């Protein structure tokens, strides 16, 4: 019998692997620390693991799930959002490109600027310390952060590229692609495979395909609240 692919449950494999130090919970269910992001996962669909996952949802709080199949309804919670994502994988060499930008590394000293840009552009869930999840790079103009890209889930052997965003006043100049290339180069240099998640109707899908990404499978993104 073929073992399940780790990317079918990327959050669980990240939280029980390389990113375990960024999470909380136990052997049955884990979530990332609330100031990092709201993603969580259970060990399996059994009642004990699902109860443990439900216990990680504080009153008035929420968690996000990304799984290959719709998750069971957690006891004492309600589903407030659910949609399909395309999980895309980069398993070919990047096409040649000579468009470079003067990018800078981003760290916790840039956290406020990163959060402000993410709140303006809404590339996906982004919290005060999301930058701790991996490498982030950006472009500054006049001291202001106007574009960034970074890493999110890191199951063993894979790294997700995420938070690809550019300030509306600076779009159309290739910053997003150039920063993606920086992060993708770093991922590949570590011997890992890059992946990402995108809504099926997102126009950026054409850009990702041009870089060599292809759809691996559909995933279910669910937000659960108590």
What would you say this structure looks like, in words?
Helix content is 21%, strand content 33%. Strand 7 and strand 8 form a beta hairpin. The strands form 2 sheets. The protein has an 8-stranded mixed sheet. It is built from 5 helices and 11 strands. With 226 residues, it is of the alpha+beta class.
Q: Which key terms come to mind for this protein?
A:
226 residues, alpha+beta, eight-stranded mixed sheet, three-stranded antiparallel sheet, 21% helix
Task: Give the secondary structure arrangement, pairings included.
Layout: H1 10-15, E1 23-25, E2 29-32, E3 40-42, H2 47-55, E4 62-67, E5 78-90, E6 104-106, H3 111-121, E7 136-141, E8 144-151, E9 158-166, H4 175-189, E10 193-198, H5 204-210, E11 213-225
Parallel strand pairs: 9-10
Antiparallel strand pairs: 1-2, 2-3, 4-11, 5-10, 5-11, 6-7, 7-8, 8-9
Instruction: Please write the string of helix (H) and strand (E) elements.
Output: HEEEHEEEHEEEHEHE
Helix content: 10-25%
Strand order of the largest sheet: 4-11-5-10-9-8-7-6
Q: Unreliable segments (pLDDT under 50, ≥5 consecutive)?
A: none
Q: How many strand segments?
A: 11
Q: Categorize the overall geometry.
A: globular
Beta-strand content bin: 25-35%
**By helix and strand content, what is the structural category?**
alpha+beta
Main beta-sheet annotation: 8 strands, mixed
């Amino acid at each position: 019998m073929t073992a399940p692919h780790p990317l079918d449950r990327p959050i669980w494999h990240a939280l029980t692997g390389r990113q375990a130090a960024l999470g909380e919970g136990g052997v049955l269910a884990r979530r990332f620390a609330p100031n990092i992001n709201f993603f969580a996962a259970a060990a399996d669909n059994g009642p004990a693991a699902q109860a443990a996952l439900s216990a990680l949802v504080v009153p008035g709080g929420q968690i996000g799930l990304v799984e290959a199949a719709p998750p069971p309804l957690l006891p004492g919670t309600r589903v407030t959002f659910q949609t399909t994502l395309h999980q895309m994988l980069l398993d070919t060499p990047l096409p040649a490109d000579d468009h470079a930008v003067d990018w800078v590394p981003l760290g916790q000293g840039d956290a406020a600027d990163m959060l402000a840009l993410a709140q303006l552009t809404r590339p996906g869930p982004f919290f005060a310390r999301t930058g701790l999840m991996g490498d982030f790079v950006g472009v500054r103009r006049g001291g202001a952060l106007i574009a960034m890209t970074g890493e999110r889930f890191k199951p063993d052997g894979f790294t997700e590229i995420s938070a690809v965003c550019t300030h509306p006043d600076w779009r159309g100049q290739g910053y997003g692609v150039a920063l993606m290339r920086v992060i993708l180069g770093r991922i590949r240099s570590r011997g890992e495979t890059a992946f990402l998640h995108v809504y099926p109707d997102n126009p950026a899908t054409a850009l990702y395909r041009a870089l060599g990404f292809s759809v691996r499978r559909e995933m279910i993104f669910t937000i659960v609240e108590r």
